[in-house]
């Protein structure tokens, strides 16, 4: 039975549970449940703090888990990224009082507050910058400068609202671009059942990332049209009752939908329809 760790709290918890449900797995209904077997799918879910997921996977007591790339790197665990999951996206950045610093080199001899001390110390070492200290805080890191325990912070930035509200601004290049990731142990053999979980999650990712596009096009324009919608392997081209026209169906990236519809219309395609993909296995 594959043991899967899932974040029980925080920004990653709800989207992780939603994604697993969409992939056909049972999920807990009560937030107090810590373990949930799903015998139909031969897996068992463990609801753990997102920061602890890499510790359990690294120790080998659960097989795989969902956590943030930033949390994985900060954990020092021997777990590795297996599949990026395209939610929980954020950047991890230095920030300080607006209008004061511009470059990571200026972190030298300054105090840095963060909830990710391993990640920050490693990054500064790689950059050859020696801070006065790395101060570990549990959260609300934005207050550390005003309250005098640090000169600079390094924290998760999503919309930037929290930084602005604290009168801070980012400086230097992002330390990391993070998102939720499925992790597994680096050296252990691939656990039985991970291939099925991976294919199911990839199916959910593809269903979100692509739409199905159908359109009609005069026969002599089929080649020009399919050049715009090559699909993943090859588009389906079917005859219409009117023999001078064909129907085409292809997968198209969701974020390209309108651009592709404009281009198809310009070459002469008509009755262009877009449908969401409910589920898929490539
Ligand atoms: N807006 C955000 N704020 C915090 N973490 C975010 C955000 N967006 C994505 N994340 C990711 O969530 C993970 C942090 O989860 P964690 O549960 O530790 O903190 P949290 O979401 O801030 O929850 P809380 O502080 O309420 O416990 C990291 O991987 C981080 O990159
Ligand atoms: O760029 P934004 O969209 O404002 O999001 C980023 C903020 O959200 C998180 O804080 P959270 O609310 O989890 O509080 P915490 O710092 O106490 O964890 C994170 O630590 C940042 O402070
Ligand atoms: Mg937080």
TrEMBL record:
It comes from Cellulomonas alba. It is an enzyme of class 2 (transferase). It catalyses: 1-(5-phospho-beta-D-ribosyl)-ATP + diphosphate = 5-phospho-alpha-D-ribose 1-diphosphate + ATP. The lineage of its organism: Bacteria, Bacillati, Actinomycetota, Actinomycetes, Micrococcales. Belongs to the ATP phosphoribosyltransferase family. Long subfamily. The gene is hisG. Pathway: Amino-acid biosynthesis; L-histidine biosynthesis; L-histidine from 5-phospho-alpha-D-ribose 1-diphosphate: step 1/9. Keywords: Amino-acid biosynthesis, ATP-binding, Cytoplasm, Glycosyltransferase, Histidine biosynthesis, Magnesium, Metal-binding, Nucleotide-binding, Transferase. InterPro entries: ATP-PRT_HisG_long, ATP_PRibTrfase_cat, ATP_PRibTrfase_CS, ATP_PRibTrfase_HisG, HisG_C, N-reg_PII-like_a/b, N-reg_PII/ATP_PRibTrfase_C. The keyword Amino-acid biosynthesis applies. Feedback inhibited by histidine. Its EC number is 2.4.2.17. Its cofactor is Mg(2+). GO terms for molecular function: ATP phosphoribosyltransferase activity. Catalyzes the condensation of ATP and 5-phosphoribose 1-diphosphate to form N'-(5'-phosphoribosyl)-ATP (PR-ATP). Has a crucial role in the pathway because the rate of histidine biosynthesis seems to be controlled primarily by regulation of HisG enzymatic activity. It comes from the Bacteria. The keyword Cytoplasm applies. Residues 207-278 form the Histidine biosynthesis HisG C-terminal domain. Residues 49-202 form the ATP phosphoribosyltransferase catalytic domain. This is ATP phosphoribosyltransferase. It is found in: Cytoplasm.
């Amino acid at each position: 039975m594959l043991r899967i760790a899932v974040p029980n709290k925080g920004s990653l918890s709800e989207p992780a549970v939603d994604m697993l449900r969409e992939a056909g797995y049972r999920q807990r209904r009560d937030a107090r449940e810590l373990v949930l077997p799903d015998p139909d799918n031969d897996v068992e879910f463990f609801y753990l703090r997102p920061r602890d997921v890499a510790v359990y996977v690294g120790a080998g007591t659960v097989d795989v888990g969902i956590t943030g790339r930033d949390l994985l790197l900060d954990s020092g665990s021997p777990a590795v990224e297996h599949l990026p999951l395209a939610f929980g996206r954020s950047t991890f950045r230095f920030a300080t009082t607006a209008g004061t610093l511009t470059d990571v080199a200026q972190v030298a001899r300054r105090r840095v507050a963060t909830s990710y001390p391993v990640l920050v110390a490693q990054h500064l070492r790689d950059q050859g910058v020696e801070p006065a200290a790395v101060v570990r805080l549990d959260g609300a890191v934005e207050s550390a400068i005003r309250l005098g325990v640090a000169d600079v912070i390094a924290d998760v930035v999503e919309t930037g609202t929290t930084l602005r509200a604290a009168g801070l601004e980012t400086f230097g290049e992002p330390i990391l671009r993070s998102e939720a990731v499925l992790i597994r142990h680096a050296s252990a053999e691939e656990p039985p059942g991970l291939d099925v979980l991976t294919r199911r999650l990839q199916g959910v990712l593809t269903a979100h990332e692509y739409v199905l596009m159908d359109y009609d096009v005069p026969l002599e324009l089929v080649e020009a049209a399919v050049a715009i919608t090559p699909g993943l392997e090859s588009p389906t081209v079917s005859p219409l009752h009117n023999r001078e026209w064909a129907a085409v169906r292809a997968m198209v990236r969701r974020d390209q939908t309108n651009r592709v519809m404009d281009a198809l219309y310009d070459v002469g395609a008509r009755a262009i329809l877009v449908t969401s993909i409910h589920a898929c296995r490539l």
